[in-house]
Each structure stands twice: as C-alpha cells, then as structure tokens.
Design a protein that fits this description.
Belongs to the universal ribosomal protein uS13 family. One of its GO terms (molecular function) is structural constituent of ribosome. One of its GO terms (cellular component) is small ribosomal subunit. With about 130 residues, the chain is mainly alpha-helical. It has 2 domains: about 60 residues, Helicase, Ruva Protein, domain 3; about 70 residues, Ribosomal protein S13/S18, C-terminal domain (30s ribosomal protein s13, domain 2), CATH 4.10.910. β1 and β2 form a beta hairpin. α4 crosses α5.
Length: about 130
C-alpha cells in the first residue's frame, strides 16, 4: 500500500480513485494531480513507483491543503462562527442543521435519536416507557 501524507491508499484501485481517500481531494482534484504528475489515472496504485509517489507528494504540498491542515482550518472556521455568535455558529452549537434544511421532520443524523414529548395516556404503556428509559 502506498503511503501518502500518512494515509495508506488502496493498492487495488486506480490511482485517481485512490487519491480521493485523502481528506480534501475529490475526483476532479485527483484527475488534475494525475495529469500534472504525468501518471496514467487507470494505473493501479500498487504499481506506482517511488518517483511517481514523490511527484504526487510534491504537487500536494505545493498546491493543495489536505488532511490535518485542512481539518484544522475547518474546525477553526466553525469555532470562529460560534465565537462571533452568528446564525450558523448558533446552529453548530445546538447540533442542528446549518444550511437551511428542515427540522420538523428528518434531520435525525444531526439531531440524534427521537425524543418523545408529551403524556402517555395508557398506564401500562407509561410503566413500560419508565422502565425502558432507566
């Protein structure tokens, strides 16, 4: 497995697909990197030579922000939004969707599991709900 910027990229996939395993590199960027490094994108990543890997590393370091630096920048941007108390920062703080999605239904990934609100009328169901939550 070739190792690029501390990430093992899969051997058995084409080079342009393997490069997308790096955080911050998508399909279009991976194709561009292969073109600039003069590597055939359909070459398997396991067949890359040391010269090819060093060419990819050179291009990544000079032209792209990837992995740790990019993650740090994204986290810093979110912290800044929270600090200035913007609307987006408030949504981040409350763990709600940030980009205008509806929350009356859906949004379960961001909000977490359902929390039932209201009274349970039947005594047996109420007893079951109390024992199930503890």
């Amino acid at each position: 497995m070739p190792r690029i910027l501390g990430i093992d990229i899969p051997n058995n996939k084409h080079t342009n697909i393997s490069l997308t395993y790096l955080y911050g590199i998508g399909q279009k960027s991976a194709d561009e990197i292969c073109r600039r490094a003069q590597i055939d994108p359909s070459t398997k990543a396991g067949e890359l030579t040391e010269a090819n890997i060093s060419a990819i590393l050179q291009i990544l370091q000079e032209s792209y922000m990837v992995e740790g630096d990019l993650r740090r920048q994204v986290a810093q941007n979110i912290r800044r939004l929270i600090a200035i108390n913007s609307y987006r920062g408030q949504r981040h703080r409350r763990n709600l969707p940030v980009h205008g999605q509806r929350t009356r239904t859906n949004a379960r990934t961001r909000k977490g599991g359902k929390k039932t609100v209201g009274a349970i009328r039947d005594r047996s169901e109420r007893k079951q709900a109390n024992t199930g939550s503890k």
